[in-house]
Amino acid sequence: MASATCALCGQQAESEDVPLTWVTSVEDGRKLLYCDRCARENVRNIEGKLDSVYW
Ligand SMILES: [Zn+2]
Q1: How far away, in angstroms, is 7 Cα from ligand 1 center?
Q2: CB neighbourhood size of 6 (10 A)
Q3: Neighbours of ion ligand 1 (CB under 5 A)
Q4: Residue 49 belongs to what H/E stretch?
Q5: Sign of the C-alpha dihedral, residues 48, 52, 53, 54?
Q6: What's the pLDDT score for residue 49?
Q7: For 49, phi and psi rounded to 5 degrees?
Q8: pLDDT reading at 12 higher than 60
Q9: Rounded distance from Cα 34 to ligand 1 centre (Å)
Q10: Number of domains into which the chain is organized
Q11: 6 with 34: CB under 8 angstroms?
Q12: What pLDDT does 4 receive?
């Protein structure tokens, strides 16, 4: 597998494993990863999308 890359800032994880602080979001069937910084800044957007999917 390719190393984990943040979907927003392009930061790459140091290992192939996704760091625990990163967030995985599935959008339109694609698996997107957000680094800890981007996840913190976009947590509301990510949760909002999840909510819209569930509802
Ligand atoms: Zn990022």
Answers
A1: 7
A2: 19
A3: 6, 8-9, 11, 35, 38
A4: helix 36-54
A5: positive
A6: 65
A7: -65, -40
A8: yes
A9: 5
A10: 1
A11: yes
A12: 87
- Please report where in the chains the tokens 């959008």 appear, as a residue: 27
Q: Give the torsion sign (CA, 36, 51, 44, 10).
A: positive
Report CA(53)–ligand 1 centroid distance (Å). 23
Q: How far is the CA of 3 from the centre of ligand 1 (A)?
A: 14
Structure tokens belonging to residue 55: 């509802």
The letter for the amino acid at 5 is T
27/8 Cα distance (integer angstroms) = 13
Structural domain harbouring 43: 1-55
Tens-place pLDDT, residues 15-54: 878 888 998 888 889 888 999 999 988 877 766 766 655 5
What pLDDT, on the 0 to 100 scale, is given for residue 41?
A: 86
